Amino acid sequence: MLTSKFSSCSNIYTFILLFLLLNIISLCSSIILPTTLILPVTKDSSTLQYITVIGQRTPLIPVNFTVHLGGASLLVDCESGYNSSTYKPVLCESKQCSFAKAEYNACGSFCLSKPRPGCNNNTCHTLDGNPIIDTYTGVELAEDVLAIGSKPVVLVSQPKFIFTCIRSFIMTHLAKGVTGIAGFGHNSTISIPNQLASLDSKFTNKFGICLSSSTRSSGVIFIGSTPYYVYNPMIDISKNLVYTPLVKNTFTTSKFSEYHVKVSSIRIAGKNVPLNKTLLSIKQGLGGTRISTTTAFTILHTTIYDAVKTAFINALPKNVTIVEPPTKQFGLCFSSKNIRNTNVGPDVPVIDIVFHKKSAFWRIYGTNSVVQVNKDVMCLAFVGQDQTRAPSIEIGGYQLEENLLIFDLIEKKIGFSSSLKLQQTSCSKYEKTS
Ligand SMILES: *[C@@H]1O[C@H](CO)[C@@H](O)[C@H](O)[C@H]1NC(C)=O
Ligand SMILES: *[C@@H]1O[C@H](CO)[C@@H](O)[C@H](O)[C@H]1NC(C)=O
Ligand SMILES: *[C@@H]1O[C@H](CO)[C@@H](O)[C@H](O)[C@H]1NC(C)=O
Ligand SMILES: *[C@@H]1O[C@H](CO)[C@@H](O)[C@H](O)[C@H]1NC(C)=O
Ligand SMILES: *[C@@H]1O[C@H](CO)[C@@H](O)[C@H](O)[C@H]1NC(C)=O
Ligand SMILES: *[C@@H]1O[C@H](CO)[C@@H](O)[C@H](O)[C@H]1NC(C)=O
């Protein structure tokens, strides 16, 4: 049952002002439910994390969250400055505890300090954590008021939104001012899209991410049903996507909710890159391909990286000079002198990620495949790394930017758009200006 309220007043004009929401709701008479919620996302220039603002607590305050696509819950630092009169721990064996299908269904009755958010006796616990430092721990489940979205803002207050409460020391290496991790995972009832859909079926267990490549203008996460519009001109960017099935990884428990796809090959300038196919499937939780918003540049298993690098060099025009990488981060750099610019970025060989069948591929153009590191040098924006204990391919933020990805959690499939720049539009044009 839906008990969330929201306002469709046009006078909410900046998202940061959402703490004024309660006043605005009381001023508005028209209450219409949106079918699609808009969540602005900014890119932090120092950590390259994608940040969104969600209102929480009473009194309602804006809280900064790092977006974690495969996160199981809305994870909040409850130790530093969590102050709310509506915080309510989820009790052991309660309705909310069984709804959350808490991993291990652990009942915590051992908080030795005086009660505070994250530390109460007889409360429902689950396992969650910080993917950036790869650290997971038992966390207290709790409920509180939530205000999510921009123009309109949806207020979830009755019932309240279930989240997880964690100690501060786990929340390190997050961008400055961030005190939580917003999880959009598929295999968790309390992730943002699944929990909103359970509050109101209008939010159809579907969402789309469209990350901005700029640290100055926001991109967007659409939650709910398509169409997903950008403006000037108005285009439904959810059309003509290539879909591939979501692949389950049921081995590593804390990563149940991550998004995996089946990559069957990689093509560079139309030619297949020779790859060890064993690495492309998930075996006992390892290998395969994951999509990750907490990885800045796509990470490839070293042998895949070496093959991609060789194929990319071979496909570059002969008048492009390979140079010593000026930064340790990247393994292949070249002079940008003879490289033209196009509307989809530097004119370099296109990289196709081919999914479960040959006709389903996602094309990566220069704007997402190379990065200009200084005036004369650009580098292949992929990182080679020992991935023996991780997915063989982790598709990261730089490759996802200015593309729309749709995650359909009912049909269990993921849609990829080719660069929106081909349509002369961008992820930052989600706001209707007229
Ligand atoms: C918490 O909020 C209450 C009521 O709004 C206020 O009286 C109190 O000073 C706040 N405490 C802190 C530590 O901010
Ligand atoms: C939890 O229970 C223990 C043992 O009864 C008690 O010492 C502790 O103060 C309680 N903690 C809270 C947060 O209520
Ligand atoms: C959230 O991020 C914004 C923008 O970086 C910043 O101005 C604000 O202080 C942050 N909020 C907190 C509570 O740190
Ligand atoms: C998570 O995956 C398990 C195992 O495949 C499945 O039984 C369960 O229903 C899934 N939960 C959600 C919320 O998708
Ligand atoms: C392919 O990769 C697997 C897993 O790392 C490895 O066991 C196998 O030896 C590799 N095959 C070849 C031909 O290199
Ligand atoms: C570099 O080579 C490409 C492809 O062979 C050619 O189209 C381009 O004109 C050349 N550029 C210069 C500056 O010579």
From TrEMBL:
A GO term for molecular function: aspartic-type endopeptidase activity
SUPFAM superfamilies in alphabetical order: Acid proteases
Major subcellular location class: secreted
GO BP term (any one): proteolysis
rRNA-binding as UniProt keyword: no
Keyword Ligase part of the UniProt annotation: no
Keywords: Membrane, Secreted, Signal, Transmembrane, Transmembrane helix
Sequence ranges assigned to domain Peptidase A1 in this UniProt record: 50-417
UniProt-annotated location(s): Secreted, Extracellular space
Transmembrane region(s): 12-33
CC per GO annotation: extracellular region
Similarity comment text for this entry: Belongs to the peptidase A1 family.
Protein name in UniProt: Peptidase A1 domain-containing protein
Taxonomic placement: Eukaryota, Viridiplantae, Streptophyta, Embryophyta, Tracheophyta
